[in-house]
Write a structure and sequence with these properties.
This protein has seven helices and two strands. With 200 residues, it is mainly α. The protein has a two-stranded antiparallel ribbon with strand order 1-2. The relative contact order is 0.06.
């Protein structure tokens, strides 16, 4: 009778088994399984310029693989005794009730009306106020340009400079019509101020 390991060895080629994408528990000295995506599984891309994109970079393995970290080093530990926060909460609630009672007694003695009790909204009321953001059915995702940030900034800068030069010519012509003369240094400063205001 064949054992399970013998059956697997015969059923699968050793070369295929060695190069398969199946991840083993504790691979690379890890305590848990390796959850990183392999190169073919990656979907996140980055632009490298000239309209080309490549998969995002792979990160190195951590140096502390295989060592179990203590909870105290990862999470904030309580600084006060257990139940101290609850006690503070109860004391403040008691103080509020005392103030409300004194205000009612003062209202009975005098002519002032008693303060109205604040209405606490229920959970369903709070949830009903929240608006759900609906996605437009006409929305289409913007296609990646394949250009790096520096390339995009360069194109945008060229466009802004070209637009600014057009506006500068327009404002200069307007100044000439208003004053009947070419702009001096003070006039040029005024023109640039108008252009910058329009560019905002």
């Amino acid at each position: 009778m064949k054992t399970f390991s013998q059956f697997i060895t015969e059923a699968y080629d050793k070369d295929v088994m060695g190069s398969s994408q199946i991840r083993k528990q504790g691979e690379g000295g890890r305590i848990g399984s390796n959850r990183k995506k392999s190169e073919p599984e990656k979907r996140r891309m980055k632009a490298v310029g000239d309209g080309k994109t490549v998969p995002a970079k792979t990160y190195k393995d951590r140096k502390d693989i295989g060592s179990q970290r203590q909870t105290s080093t990862r999470e904030q530990q309580p600084e006060k005794e257990r139940g101290s926060a609850r006690k503070t909460q109860l004391d403040s609630a008691k103080e509020e009730r005392k103030k409300a009672a004194l205000a009612r007694i003062a209202a009975k003695k005098g002519s002032k009306p008693a303060p109205e009790k604040k209405k606490t909204p229920s959970a369903s009321e709070l949830l009903s106020k929240k608006k759900k953001s609906e996605v437009s059915p006409n929305y289409t995702q913007q296609k990646a340009s394949g250009k790096t940030r520096a390339e995009r900034d360069k194109i945008r800068g060229e466009g802004e400079r070209y637009l600014k030069s057009i506006m500068k010519d327009q404002e200069t012509e307007k100044y000439k019509k208003e004053t009947g003369q070419n702009p001096d240094s003070k006039g040029r400063t005024k023109i640039l101020g108008r252009v910058n205001k329009r560019m905002k």
